[in-house]
Amino acid sequence: MDVACVQETRWRGSGCRFFGAVGKRYKLFWMGSKAKTDGVGIIVAEKWVDSVLSVERHSERVLVPKVVLGECLLNVFTVYAPHSGKPDEKKEIFWNEVFHLVSCIPQNEVVVFAGDMNGHIGSSNVGYDGTHGGYGYGSRLVGVKFNAHLDTV
């Protein structure tokens, strides 16, 4: 595995560090909170580390490294959305921030979106034929509104 986005790291502060054996190392970039809750990060194989141009740490829920891949610039959004127990206002603020950040990416750059969106589709696969095996739990999250349109590539 060359790249992994991680959520709920529960680390304080932000930073980056290598780990692993020489020649098989990985670099972890992270952003946490003072309270040791939430937190996001991305783990990159050593062979790709020099391709990371920048890492924008927006909050303990949004981290966006910019990576050169051939002639493409990738913006890898690693996110951790507020869960169903959080107030709707926090969810709205989070998604508005994410949509704003995505809308600021130039159209000639690629957006990769990874993370824990904390969406619930429940145990029923109605409307998700071929993509949901029916092994979920609970009921579908309803009433979620998205205020922006994202084009997919």
What does this structure look like?
The protein is mostly beta strands and 153 residues long. It has a single domain, classed as Endonuclease/exonuclease/phosphatase (Deoxyribonuclease I, Chain A), CATH 3.60.10. Helix content is 13%, strand content 36%. It contains two helices and eight strands. It has helices spanning 46-49, 88-103, and strands at residues 3-7, 14-19, 26-31, 40-45, 52-59, 62-69, 72-80, 110-116. The strands form two sheets. Strands 1-4-3-2 form a four-stranded antiparallel β-sheet. Residues 144-153 have low confidence and may be disordered.
In percent, how much strand structure appears in the residues? 35-45%
Task: Work out the radius of gyration.
Answer: 17 Å
At the fold tier of CATH, the topology name is Deoxyribonuclease I, Chain A
Tally of domains: 1
State the end-to-end distance. 23 Å
Specify the biggest β-sheet: 4 strands, antiparallel
CATH level-4 homologous superfamily: Endonuclease/exonuclease/phosphatase
- Can you tell me the residue ranges where pLDDT is under 50 for at least 5 consecutive residues? 144-153
Fraction of residues in H or I helices: 10-25%
Number of helices: 2
Secondary structure: number of strands? 8
Question: What is the CATH-assigned architecture?
Answer: 4-Layer Sandwich
> In order across it, which strands form the biggest sheet?
1-4-3-2
- How would you state the average pLDDT, rounded? 83
CATH C-level class: Alpha Beta
Task: Outline the fold blueprint.
Blueprint (H helix, E strand, L loop, with lengths): L2 E5 L6 E6 L6 E6 L8 E6 H4 L2 E8 L2 E8 L2 E9 L7 H16 L6 E7 L37
Parallel strand pairs: 7-8
Antiparallel strand pairs: 1-4, 2-3, 3-4, 5-6, 6-7
